[in-house]
Design a protein that fits this description.
This protein has a single domain (about 25-280), classed as Deoxyribonuclease I, Chain A, CATH 3.60.10.10. The longest helix is centred in the middle third of the chain and has 16 residues, at about 135-150. Helix 6 (about 135-150) runs parallel beside helix 8 (about 205-210). Helices cover about 30% and strands about 25% of the residues. Strands 3-4-2-1-14-13 form a 6-stranded mixed sheet. A 6-stranded mixed sheet has the order 5-6-7-8-12-11. By secondary structure, the chain is an alpha+beta fold.
Length: about 280
């Protein structure tokens, strides 16, 4: 009898539902933190104090430069996340930290400019991406790969795709001025490796592809007007560029309570990107 009970407990512990936490305020944060918070201990402490106040259940990172798996785990523990995963050691890694076990992890570097992470956290299928900053054609390929991976998952389960897409949305087109296009064109004339314009126009194909696949841009799902994600006050002039997104499939969109791009005294300074936050009601 005792042996049977032990076996039952072990079986439950190995199932995702054992760890699942139904919450009405489940928070997910996505943040490009500028080259690993520059490995500056003061900036890191400032961030850790700030993120404790936000109290996210999951954080998706881009540009976790010079972190190791061990240093990432130590970093995340300081704000209450006992679980963390890093995509790779070199270049510009993406990463994930969580209050809950991160399982079924896949770290994909092949065919990606940087890398992407896939994992299951609290019965949510999580993708953390960081697309090419220099080529709209490369971003098209990267998006196709992400969507092909996501299409293998049960579509009635909760899926979230988030990160720095280095792409703009056609839904923000009214904010994209001729001056913005001209500045992008001038940059391409000076730097041959940069090809972000598509036949001299802002490319919307990447964001259109994920929208056409049935995903929702959660910021626009809950807000009527644009808030830029780059650059921050410390790193440039005010803009109308939104390149950092959180997208959810229908099964998760119905659980979205709110979404915001956090612009405050801390996020004005610690990175060149502003973070995106979504709050979910998992009890629905």
């Amino acid at each position: 009898m005792i042996l049977n009970r032990v076996m039952l407990i072990l079986a439950l512990a190995l199932t995702p539902c054992f760890w699942a936490a139904a919450q009405s305020d489940f928070k997910i944060l996505s943040y490009n933190v500028l080259e690993g918070l520059q490995q500056d201990s003061l900036v890191m402490e400032q961030y850790q104090d700030w993120v404790k106040e936000i109290d996210p259940d999951i954080v998706a990172y881009q540009e976790m430069n010079k972190f190791t798996q061990k240093s990432l785990e130590q970093f995340a523990k300081r704000y209450g996340h006992p679980y963390a995963v890093l995509s790779k050691l070199d270049g510009f890694p993406v990463a994930l930290s969580s209050k809950y076990p991160i399982v079924n992890v896949q770290k994909v570097v092949d065919n990606m400019w940087h890398a992407y992470l896939y994992a299951n956290v609290n019965n949510i299928h999580v993708f953390v991406i960081h697309f090419s900053p220099f080529s709209y054609e490369k971003r098209q390929h990267e998006m196709r790969q992400i969507l092909a991976h996501a299409a293998l998952l049960p579509q009635d389960e909760k899926i979230i795709i988030m990160g720095d897409f280095n792409s703009m949305s056609q839904e923000d087109e009214a904010y994209h001025t001729p001056e913005m296009v001209e500045a992008m064109l001038e940059r391409e004339k000076k730097q041959a490796h940069i090809r972000n314009l598509n036949q001299g126009k802002i490319d919307y194909t990447v964001m259109n592809a994920i929208r056409e696949a049935g995903y929702k841009d959660v910021f626009l799902h809950k807000n009527d007007s644009l808030i830029s994600t780059v650059p921050t006050k410390k790193y440039g002039k005010p803009s109308t560029r939104r390149i950092d997104f959180i997208w959810t499939n229908p099964a998760l969109t119905e659980r979205v309570v709110s979404s915001s791009i956090i612009q405050d005294a801390v996020t004005d300074q610690i990175s060149d990107h502003y973070p995106v936050l979504v709050t979910l009601d998992l009890e629905k």
